């Protein structure tokens, strides 16, 4: 007796050059979270960049919306192996938010409402590589996908695009976040399959 149901083909392999190794295309947008979904009203939301010296730069929701907005269309890749191509967002470039922030830091630790953290090299948040987004596919970003605002760092695995983000703490030394201390890779490059420590 076979252990595979007759006719079962398994997960289709895309063969498209747009996919990092080990990934498969999905038309859906899976929801993966480690805990309960925070509900943060826009009038209570704020974003804070704090430097290694303790200097803070703050934006309310109204102040965020008054900044120059961009509409990036990017591919996203989850460490659980799904990829979604051509996703469209709207938000503020991290270049805009970091402009005028004086710091000698090389790293950032993203903090989220609900307690989640993830670490990123500061260079990966600059030069048009990352955004603080509030809109997905033309609609307000739903809470299950990180609304009211999340990071978008599409060149790294999607756990680095922290949901429900409330700030960045700039640091001199790299400080692993929630998933990194649980064994996930410190950097998370999907093209190098950096899923776990040691990859």
From TrEMBL:
InterPro entries associated with the record: OxRdtase_Mopterin-bd_dom (IPR000572), OxRdtase_Mopterin-bd_sf (IPR036374)
Residue numbers spanned by region Disordered: 1-22
Any one Pfam family match given in the protein's UniProt record, by short name: Oxidored_molyb
Ranges for domain Oxidoreductase molybdopterin-binding: 35-179
Domain of life: Bacteria
SUPFAM superfamilies: Oxidoreductase molybdopterin-binding domain
Name this polypeptide is given: DMSO/TMAO reductase YedYZ, molybdopterin-dependent catalytic subunit
Organism the protein comes from: Micromonospora phaseoli
